[in-house]
Amino acid sequence: xxxxxxxxxxxxxxxxxxxxxxxxxxxxxxxxxxxxxxxxxxxxxxxxxxxxxxxxxxxxxxxxxxxxxxxxxxxxxxxxxxxxxxxxxxxxxxxxxxxxxxxxxxxxxxxxxxxxxxxxxxxxxxxxxxxxxxxxxxxxxxxxxxxxxxxxxxxxxxxxxxxxxxxxxxxxxxxxxxxxxxxxxxxxxxxxxxxxxxxxxxxxxxxxxxxxxxxxxxxxxxxxxxxxxxxxxxxxxxxxxxxxxxxxxxxxxxxxxxxxxxxxxxxxxxxxxxxxxxxxxxxxxxxxxxxxxxxxxxxxxxxxxxxxxxxxxxxxxxxxxxxxxxxxxxxxxxxxxxxxxxxxxxxxxxxxxxxxxxxxxxxxxxxxxxxxxxxxxxxxxxxxxxxxxxxxxxxxxxxxxxxxxxxxxxxx
Length: 412
Description:
- By secondary structure, the protein is mainly alpha-helical.
- The protein has two domains: about 1-120, no CATH class; about 160-400, no CATH class.
- Helix content is about 70%, strand content about 5%.
- It contains twelve helices and seven strands.
- It has a three-stranded antiparallel β-sheet with strand order 1-2-3, with no helix packed on it. It has a two-stranded antiparallel sheet with strand order 4-5. It has a two-stranded antiparallel ribbon with strand order 6-7.
- The longest helix has about 60 residues, at about 235-300.
């Protein structure tokens, strides 16, 4: 499209410089491409004289000067005026001798003009050729200069855009610092709550979105690579910055999802253990009472029943809610010791079911402790890793702030 416009402009330039009309005797003839204004300008130096010239036309049926056609004739001898050697309009009456002399003078002037044009040169070129080629070259130069300006303007706009994106990344890293620290605090508080927990129960976790997913909503990888390509500095350093930004942001997005998922698993499994504990403890209480009745019937005033009753009475003597460790220390483990003693007697089968029930409670307690310890370690790891990753991002932001772009924009 640009080439087509250039060709049209070139043709117009050449057309404007060409002169096709001719004078033969007293008659002026038009050629294709001529217009009355141009002819009047060429003859008199003033295109405004076209009306006087138009009035001398032979074919008066043409009344629109813009509808002039090739070979249309104009009579220079009209009885009203003629064109003199200085191309100025004289309002005089002419006779045949003055017309003859004027024609001879015009021919002499044309020969002299052609001779002068032949001898004159512009920039080493013939005058007739130079007045055509110089406007063409100027037109080409202006066209190319415009293209060059547009090219530099486009590159400047892209560099400005890259600077804006670079600044956005720098500011984003600083912007998310409070939310990242809030997530770290949430992990640490959860760890502390689990360490201090004495009962089998869920603990509250304060989740805080780190907002790292906002940066991923743009074409992060492509933009970062394009920015780094246009930055000054060593390629090794820039490659490291690319890796650190992309990998650390991706890690933070993933770890945020992991934190949520793992807490949901913690909460779900803890509720499952609580349900199992309640069921197992209810069964334990029932089996314990049944075992006491059977043993007492088999062996009245048995030491096992006496010890069991004392352990239960001591455990129930305080009305406060017992934590899990106290339940085991004051009830489950002492009863287990008495069961172990009775299992050595000939009637050991009478307490076997109670022994199994105690083992079920111990297994649930072990699962809870393992479950709790695992999530303590997991969230400690989350807090440390998030802190380390954010420190890397802050280092990258500092390096980006000190970096400058190359003078020309490079496309990735």
